[in-house]
Amino acid sequence: MIRCPVELLKKIFNLMLLASLFLVINLEAGQWQIPDSITTMPGGSKLPYREKDGVKEFHLIAEPVKKEMGPGFFVDAWGYNGSTPGPVIEATEGDTVRIFVTNKLPEPTTIHWHGIKVPSGMDGVTGLSQKPIMPGETYKYEFTLDQWGTYMYHPHYDEMTQIALGMAGFFVIHPKSFRGSQPDRDFLIMLGEWAIPPGSSKPIPSEMVNFNYFTFNSTVWPTTPSLSIKTGEKVRIRFGNLSMNSHPIHVHGTVFRETSNGVERFNFDAQFEDVTVNVPVGSVREIEFTMDQAGDWAIHCHKSHHIMNGMGHQTYSLIDLKLDSAEMDKARKLIPGFMLMGSKGMGEMFSHEMHSMPRPKNFMHYGTPGPFGTIEMSGMFTVMKVRDNPEDDKGGWYQNPPGTVASPASKEEIEGLLEE
Ligand SMILES: [Cu+2]
User: Fold this and answer.
1) Region labeled Disordered — which residues (predicted)?
2) How far is the CA of 352 from the centre of ligand 1 (A)?
3) 277-290 pLDDT, tens per residue?
4) What is the ipTM of this complex?
């Protein structure tokens, strides 16, 4: 028990001394630590670093990864340090970084630091800038960062296979001093495409066009976490794309400014307002906005096939076609790849009846429960949960104020409206 202020001061002094000693010991030992910033990759992690002789050291491990892409839907992917995308590398402009890369894949690999100015021999291109890192080997990359912004890393050996299986990650370089604006939330989303046959857990790396899973940070909704935002907060989202297609990402509930293509930041005059940001292959796009209105707001790719799961894209239209079951059987035999597409559209695919139909093992279904029935979107889709008090929110759906939800019109309201 502390009886007088002098004793209290002594106690505080001793504690501070102990804490600083502990800090010195830790720094000397080069303890691994997690970068301290608000930047987060929903569903992902950050790569720890340690300081050694004024250099920031990191350790990436290229390895096979069992990824839960959707609830109960597991994929045999490749990634880094147990995850796809790989953990976020974070450093600051001016830092010298030393990155150890251990190869635990069954084939060689390298790492290319996409967009980062490095010496030619650190650029990671197999055969051109270095020898491949053989399975079991650990290589060392070292360079000084004299730029800032949002960059990426990926292999430059057997790119088709390794990137298709999930090997990609963000490399965020924070500016040394304040530039532009400071958001309250700073999210990273890596866009991905996968071709995974129904019932299989193995993505097909040679697929070039016909993908059937589209992911934010290698997951589909509802495994992709929702983004928790407080009303009035300033939000930044950084999108990276190392897939085979561009992805126009549409944000509901706000108009955003496109503030950067990852390379530092556009001058304010060069920034522009938009509602959809197209993220080309091999590129980064950053957007910033303020969420003024509480609610559940969708954010998704606007290529409508990219918000579906497990969908075959070479089906025939049965809309308006009335076939009995014998005719259906005949059609199935006659037309290769013929599937049971709805005759009134595809909406019935999302119904609960469809969910009760037998389906292959390890298969991600089409719709998930929402506050008003089934949410049909999945794939490249998540929800921004904007709340006045996110701390009090139990993760449920937005409670709309009475009279603010679209509802059936009454007879009186539409009187005369439907007359010829
Ligand atoms: Cu897309």
Assistant:
1) 391-420
2) 26
3) 999 999 999 999 99
4) 0.83
